[in-house]
Amino acid sequence: MGAYAIKRIASAAVTLFVVATLTFFLMFLVPGGPFLSEKATTPQTLKALEQKYGLDQPVGVQYVNYMKRIVMGDLGTSLKMRGQEVNDIIGQRFPVSARLGAIAVLIAIAVGIPLGSVAALNRGKWLDNIIMFIATTGIAVPSFVVATTLMFTFGVKLHILPTYGLSSPMHYVLPVMALAFYPTAYISRLMRSSMLDVLGQDYMRTARAKGISQFKSLFKHALRNAVLPVITYMGPMLAYILTGSFVVEKIFTIPGLGSQFISSITDRDYPLIMGTTIFLAFLLITMNVIVDIAYKIIDPRIKLK
Amino acid sequence: MEKKNNFSFQLDVTDFLPADESEKQSMVIMRESTSFWKDGYRRLKRNKLAMISFVVIVIVLIMAFIVPSFYPYSYEQQIRGSENLGVMEYSKEEIARMEAGEKVFPHLLGTDSLGRDITIRLLMGSRISLLVGIVASVIILVIGSIYGSIAGYFGGKVDMIMMRAVDIIYTVPDILIIILLSVTLKYPLRDLAEKVPGFQWIETVGVGLISIFIVFSLLYWVGMSRIVRSQILTLKEQEYVVAAKALGASSSRIIRKHLLTNSIGILIVTTTLQIPASIFTESFLSFLGLGVSAPMPSLGSMASQAIGGINSYPLRLLAPAAMISLIILSFNLLGDGLRDAFDPKLKN
């Protein structure tokens, strides 16, 4: 177990290193360096700026400095929002996105698992067909389509839900629905197929033969085993919620990290783009490692390598 | 009857008697033997959902690639005086022209704020989405199958090193890197197109499109290579590979003629399912303003531009949104059908 965890953490560290290196060298592809969009810069100020940020040094030295700063947790300074540290911006914006994302994850799990199980138990009947139709459509619809359609129906046509900001609990309804739609559909499909798989297992027949009630056999045997694949989906789901948040926060004008990331792209605020990328990559990779290790602990049948 | 000695070389005369009718009958081929393709196609035909999706895809392909060439409007043409028309509406000028006896092609879905016909923009947008989906998937197929088959075939240290690299790329958060690359790749590509002779075609295809191709093929081939590798690992133990080796076939010949050919089913299925995934990502990028550059429309960018006017012109948002969902859904369903039809593991 310990060996596996160490191996997994080491490979995650390598991945993070690759991401950080990639961001550094991509920064170099941008012509004129990070000060390209500065208006009315005289050669002198440009030089002063370059000196201040150490951009006049050779690439190797810059790379080492950059890596040192990242390891220390310093992601640099924003270009557009003068004097603001990237760390501070993330610190302000991230909690908003995290709350939204966490609610969406909970909703997706709380809705997806029962839906998938119900579909599996009613295999081939109309209920199964309806659930699977919705779920199949659900994974084909990009998040911006879901978000805009929800906004259009409930916000614009029916006027029953607010469409921007996050000032009251009601404001959470539409963005959370938009974010949770795809993962819910995906979990339902996943849950259905794994539930069908489990229901066909020998231990289920044994359990029933021993006279355990239907209820108990479903909850104690079937559900606990069938839920395992959903745990492996946690990693990709977090990634999806994260990218979904870019779109959803933009559409519903929510002051989270996602909308911040998008506006930093349109502003070409390179330090902010790079900083946010590294932060989010760190977050995702860490979460994936935790999910992977948790999965091995939960399911002892998986061989520990 | 005398017991036959198994070690005797004496021939059994009864083996050489002329065959009687019943024996002849058993040799008659009752049904034509089916090939791999026919077999798969037969199963696919039975899957109604997949066939409907296939027809939808063909129709969308025709609309996106053939119809625009004789459509009376072009996607960048700004018709003065016909801004913000609704469905099937005509501007005053056009009504005047119609009264003068001229034929004016209707704006089926109206026009946008710059007087561009929305129908043709929708078709061109679908063309971009399909192009991205198909070209990116083919690039991914080529890179992934070459890489995966080399790793799988040679095994051992080669495999270990190649697959460690894949593992690392696999854990890199794809969307973040894609966004990062699309933000930064445009400059060097533009430089390349302007300064280096022989690269002008980049400008013709479009810097945005090329950078999307590069970005997708850099990141998404890893999934394909894993699938191909695992397929090759089981296939290379087969007798026909040993036979080919004994006959002196080179490694590349075995990979090309035996291993990849025999994993064709899984290659087709994975590529078909890769197409909607690529379209999904492309629309997401265009929605964020990172896809193809204006005036070229993309379904994602059309939807994103329409959000501001959602109160007055909902159709401008709903049309591209419906189109993108339809395309992705059809490809998903067709891919599922193809998997059921061609993937031998799921045959039973």
Features:
heterodimer, A: 305 residues, mainly alpha, MetI-like fold, 12 helices, 75% helix, 0% strand, B: 348 residues, 68% helix, elongated
Compile the SSE list and pairings:
The complex is a heterodimer of chains A (305) and B (348).
Chain A: H1 2-29, H2 43-52, H3 59-71, H4 86-121, H5 126-138, H6 143-157, H7 169-199, H8 202-209, H9 214-226, H10 228-251, H11 257-266, H12 270-298
Chain B: H1 21-27, H2 36-46, H3 48-65, H4 67-70, H5 92-99, H6 118-154, H7 156-171, H8 174-195, H9 201-205, H10 207-219, H11 221-235, H12 239-246, H13 251-262, H14 264-287, H15 299-306, H16 314-342
Helix pairs in contact in B: 2-16, 3-6, 3-16, 6-7, 6-10, 6-11, 6-13, 6-14, 6-16, 7-11, 8-10, 11-14, 12-13, 14-15, 14-16, 15-16
Question: TL;DR?
Answer:
The complex is a heterodimer of chains A (305) and B (348). Chain A is mainly alpha-helical and 305 residues long. Helix content of chain A is 75%, strand content 0%.
